[in-house]
């Protein structure tokens, strides 16, 4: 009840002063927003900032948008001056390989869509090359 009342007070403040209010919540290990689900129903937009711990890339995904689409995906890189939009997000999913390298065995590319954004990703199969050559 306390979370609902505090959120309602912040919403009234935002509407009367025309000042945007950001509420930052915690996501549990299972991927759910911690706390009461009523919070998601009160707010206009729910955004998830996703990414791996050891990379500088983050994806901003809209789960709820009362006034627009949730089909967009923002890709950002953390730099010294803050988040910067990544213009060619496909680069983060590809590695540079020498065309004569044995690494290219077991390497494939595929195209996926996330929302309205298209990515080319690299899929690698890891195996012992010497075993592969012996079988053939």
Automatic annotation (TrEMBL):
Q: Which GO terms describe its molecular function?
A: ATP binding; ATP-dependent DNA damage sensor activity; DNA binding
Gene3D superfamilies in alphabetical order: P-loop containing nucleotide triphosphate hydrolases
A Gene Ontology biological process noted in the UniProt record is: recombinational repair
RecA family profile domain location is: 1-27
Recorded hits in PANTHER family, A to Z, give: DNA REPAIR PROTEIN RADA, DNA REPAIR-LIKE PROTEINRADA
This chain belongs to which protein, by name? RecA family profile 1 domain-containing protein
- Please report the organism this UniProt entry assigns to the protein: Pisum sativum (Garden pea)
Classification of source organism: Eukaryota, Viridiplantae, Streptophyta, Embryophyta, Tracheophyta
């Amino acid at each position: 009840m306390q979370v609902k009342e505090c959120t309602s007070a912040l919403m009234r403040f935002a509407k009367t002063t025309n000042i945007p209010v950001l509420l930052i919540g915690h996501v549990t290990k299972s991927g759910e927003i911690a706390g009461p689900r009523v919070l998601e129903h009160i707010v206009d937009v729910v955004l998830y900032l996703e990414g791996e711990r050891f990379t500088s890339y983050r994806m901003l995904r809209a789960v709820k948008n009362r006034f627009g689409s949730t089909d967009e995906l923002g890709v950002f890189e953390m730099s010294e001056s803050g988040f910067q939009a990544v213009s060619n997000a496909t680069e983060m999913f590809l590695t540079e390989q020498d065309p004569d390298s044995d690494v290219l065995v077991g390497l494939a590319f595929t195209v996926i869509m996330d929302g309205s954004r298209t990515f080319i990703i690299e899929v690698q199969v890891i195996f012992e090359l010497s075993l592969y050559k012996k079988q053939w």
